[in-house]
C-alpha cells in the first residue's frame, strides 16, 4: 500500500505537509531550535505523492533531499512557516502539520552578534508566543478540508493527545512519545491516530513511511 502504483486514492487531491523544526533568531548567528529532523513530514509527502496527490511540502530547516514530484517551500522561522502554510492551504484538500513549530520566539532578534561582557553572567532573552498555525487553519478551514496535527509528548501521551485534539479542533491528531533516543532523527516511529469522531488507531513501531501510509488511509476515509 506504500509503493507507487499500489493505490492512487489521493489522485486529484492537493495536500500540504509541513515538516522539520522552526528556528527562532536570537541574533544573526544564533537561534532557538528543536530536535525535529523532518523525516516524518518528508515520509508523509513522499507517500502522498506516491498515492497520486499533488503535494506542497513546507520544510523548516531540514537537511533532506527534495522528494521526487513534490513542490518544496523552504522556511526558517515560525512566522515564515505561517506565511507559507497559509499561502498554500486555501487550495488544499488536506493540510498536515507535521512540523515542530516553536511555541515562542525572542521578542526581537539582535541586529549584531551578542557579545559577552565582564559585567554580567546571565543573558535574559524575552520570548513572545508564536501564532498557533494549526489553530488558525482550523478557524479558516474551507468546507470539506481535512486538517491533521501531530503531537510529540514525553509523558501521559494519550491523555495529553486527547485533550490537545479537542483543544485544537483538527480532524486527526497523531500522537507519539518522544525522548532522548526516541523518534527524533530515527527512521522508525510508532503512534496513535486520534480522530475527532473518537476513534483511536494504534500504529505499532514501524518505518515513518508506514506511519505516513496509515495517516493517509485515515485521511482518505474522511475525504471519501
Ligand atoms: N503547531 C502549530 N503552531 C504552533 C505550535 C504548534 O501549528 N505555534 C502545531 C504543530 O505543528 C502540531 C500541533 O500544532 O501539528 C501540536 O503541536 P504541539 O506543540 O504538540 O501543541 P501545542 O499546542 O503547542 O502544545 P504544547 O504546550 O504541548 O507544546
Ligand atoms: Ca508546542
UniProtKB/TrEMBL annotation:
Reported cofactor(s): FMN; Mg(2+)
Binding residue positions for CTP: 103, 113, 131-134, 150, 164, 168
E.C. code: 4.1.1.36, 6.3.2.5
Name of the encoding gene: coaBC
Region Phosphopantothenate--cysteine ligase, annotated ranges: 15-224
Family listed: In the N-terminal section; belongs to the HFCD (homo-oligomeric flavin containing Cys decarboxylase) superfamily.
Species for this entry: Actinocorallia longicatena
Membrane-spanning residues: none
Coiled coil: none
Pathway(s) it belongs to: Cofactor biosynthesis; coenzyme A biosynthesis; CoA from (R)-pantothenate: step 3/5; Cofactor biosynthesis; coenzyme A biosynthesis; CoA from (R)-pantothenate: step 2/5
GO molecular function terms attached to this record: ligase activity
Shown residues within the full chain: 181 to 404 of 404
Ranges of residues in domain DNA/pantothenate metabolism flavoprotein C-terminal: 10-221
Catalysed reactions, semicolon-separated: (R)-4'-phosphopantothenate + L-cysteine + CTP = N-[(R)-4-phosphopantothenoyl]-L-cysteine + CMP + diphosphate + H(+); N-[(R)-4-phosphopantothenoyl]-L-cysteine + H(+) = (R)-4'-phosphopantetheine + CO2
Cofactor binding description: Binds 1 FMN per subunit.
Name recorded for this polypeptide: Coenzyme A biosynthesis bifunctional protein CoaBC
Protein task: Catalyzes two sequential steps in the biosynthesis of coenzyme A. In the first step cysteine is conjugated to 4'-phosphopantothenate to form 4-phosphopantothenoylcysteine. In the second step the latter compound is decarboxylated to form 4'-phosphopantotheine.
Keywords: Decarboxylase, Flavoprotein, FMN, Ligase, Lyase, Magnesium, Metal-binding, Multifunctional enzyme
